[in-house]
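Subject: Sanity check before I submit

Could someone independently write out the structure tokens for this chain? I want to compare against mine line by line before I put it in a report. The sequence has 69 residues.
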Amino acid sequence: MEKGTAANMNLDFTLTKFRSLCSAVAQHYPTLTLAEYFQGNKLPEFFAMMRHDIDRKPENALSTARVDI
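---
Independent answer below. Compare away.
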């Protein structure tokens, strides 16, 4: 496989890494909730919305949601 493909990447799905990712995104883009997006009031030209799946470990949903706040 080529360098940088999913097969040889170290995938880190920890809350620490997710917190770091959210912080990095927020430093460069305004972030919106889904409710803000669907209201459509004066959306910024560029923005970020992130979603995360919790279907594998639903018991982690609350911890992940707390990072989002």
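---
OP: Matches mine. For the report I'm noting this point. The mean pLDDT is 80.
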